């Protein structure tokens, strides 16, 4: 953690700052900060700064603490910026307001800073200011009671003459933006405030990169919003919806993938079962092909004996004695056939076993050393 968060310092809920970050601050703000393209490490740097500023461990920073941290004197404009960051108008910033507000202001390009300053006084959101409102805008930015106090160069009077380009007594946002392209000094205090924030938090180069990323990702929200504050709200709301939509699509895709995986497993099991059945059938066919004629005769004789026995086991009447006698004679005959067939099959099996044994002995002899 940063310099203000020593190892023995206790922060909110009596936790160490690093524990509070891991258990509370990051989980609560992860979604929003991720939308703003801040990873956990970068967001931690902003949290460390917040803890350094929040010296009383209240979980909030006051406008005074804000200016002390930046090393700047409080002005009406900087106080107004603080008020804009203070989303709930509580008079203090919590970490979420600070992080989102810092990102918002630090990623402004000149066009958006111009729009921000313009929006502060364009109360009716008509996209134009009269000269009195322009006068008030400049006095607030430069923190002076009268334009005459802006000595310049250019002086306050000269700036006003530049602003009212066509002398119609009104300035549109487009006219004001065009003027800022070539006369940055008009809003120099606003640019100085941004630079101070950038330097204290993550560095100017880092924020330059995020400013470019903001142009790429959030240009629509920045251009269509009625003012710069609404732009920030639009970014968070729309991008959150986009993230939720992507998550929903990913969940659906995952569900479809799981279904496909289940179907694939079932198909694999079906093919495996079919292969087993096929191999079993092949083994049976192979075994049948290896059966000798004697063994086939033995099987037929055994089947005949079983059939004769079944006939004798059936109940009979006195009138069926003759048939019964014939069935018994058939059983005796079948038994004799089975005896002869079994003996013949046994002789064949023994002969084959002796033959196989001799072949095994011969194959073994090939590997035995000669003596």
TrEMBL record:
Keywords assigned: Calcium, Coiled coil, Metal-binding, Repeat
Domain (EF-hand) ranges: 41-76, 157-186
Residues in coiled coil: 238-304
TM ranges: none
Statement: the UniProt record of this protein carries the keyword Cell membrane: no
Pfam family for this entry, one: EF-hand_7
Molecular function as annotated in GO: calcium ion binding
PANTHER family for this protein: PROTEIN PHOSPATASE 3 REGULATORY SUBUNIT B ALPHA ISOFORM TYPE 1
Name this polypeptide is given: EF-hand domain-containing protein
Lineage: Eukaryota, Sar, Stramenopiles, Ochrophyta, Dictyochophyceae
């Amino acid at each position: 953690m940063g310099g203000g968060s020593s190892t023995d310092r206790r922060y909110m809920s009596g936790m160490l700052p690093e524990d509070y970050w891991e258990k509370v601050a990051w989980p609560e703000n992860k979604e929003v900060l991720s939308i703003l393209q801040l990873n956990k490490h970068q967001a931690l740097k902003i949290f460390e700064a917040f803890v350094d500023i929040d010296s009383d461990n209240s979980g909030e920073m006051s406008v005074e603490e804000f200016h002390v941290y930046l090393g700047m004197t409080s002005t009406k404009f900087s106080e107004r910026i603080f008020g804009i960051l203070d989303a709930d108008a509580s008079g203090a910033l919590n970490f979420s307001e600070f992080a989102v507000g810092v990102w918002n202001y630090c990623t402004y390009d000149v066009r958006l800073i111009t729009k921000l300053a313009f929006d502060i006084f364009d109360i009716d959101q008509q996209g134009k200011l009269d000269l009195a409102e322009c006068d008030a805008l400049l006095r607030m930015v430069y923190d002076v009671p009268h334009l005459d106090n802006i000595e310049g160069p250019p002086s306050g009077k000269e700036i006003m003459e530049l602003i009212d380009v066509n002398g119609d007594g009104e300035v549109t946002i487009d006219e004001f933006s065009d003027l800022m392209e070539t006369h940055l000094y008009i809003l120099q205090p606003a640019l100085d405030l941004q630079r101070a924030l950038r330097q204290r938090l993550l560095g100017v180069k880092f924020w330059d990169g995020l400013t470019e990323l903001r142009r790429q990702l959030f240009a629509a929200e920045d251009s269509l919003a009625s003012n710069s504050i609404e732009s920030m709200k639009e970014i968070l709301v729309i991008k959150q919806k986009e993230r939720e939509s992507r998550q929903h699509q990913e969940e659906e895709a995952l569900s479809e993938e799981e279904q496909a995986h289940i179907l694939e497993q079932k198909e694999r099991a079906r093919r495996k079962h079919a292969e087993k059945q096929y191999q079993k059938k092949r083994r049976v066919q192979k075994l049948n092909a290896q059966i000798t004629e004697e063994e086939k005769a033995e099987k037929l004789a055994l089947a005949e004996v079983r059939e004769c026995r079944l006939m004798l086991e059936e109940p009979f009447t006195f009138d069926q004695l003759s048939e019964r006698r014939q069935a018994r004679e058939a059983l005796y005959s079948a038994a004799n056939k089975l005896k002869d067939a079994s003996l013949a099959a046994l002789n064949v099996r023994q002969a084959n076993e002796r033959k196989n044994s001799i072949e095994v002995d011969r194959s073994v002899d090939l590997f035995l050393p000669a003596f």
